[in-house]
User: Fold this.
Amino acid sequence: MFEVLRDVVKSLADGLAITVAPTHTVLTTSEAADLLGVSRPTLVRLLESGEIPYEQPARHRKVRLDDVLAYQQRMQRARAAGLDEMVRDAEDAGMYDLPEDATIERLSISEERDNLG
Assistant:
């Protein structure tokens, strides 16, 4: 519970809006798309591909909030895993390694700045 309150306070401090709703809440496709930050047609594609479950009791699709939040968490984990993999690949390729003379050059520049200021 503490983590939830901490996240709410941080979001409010960052100027973000907060909505509190029971997870069994049913959303329209427009509301679900807004929550995910995607267009309604993109959300419909996610629904039709089975990425997010939905019900269509009549003409309009309805999406459960907890299903949308579960999808959002899966995507966040997938993005984080992808970024971790990119960093590992870059480290393996030596892209974070600096040539030895770069460290000396940086020190020289830093010393010059210190002498000027």
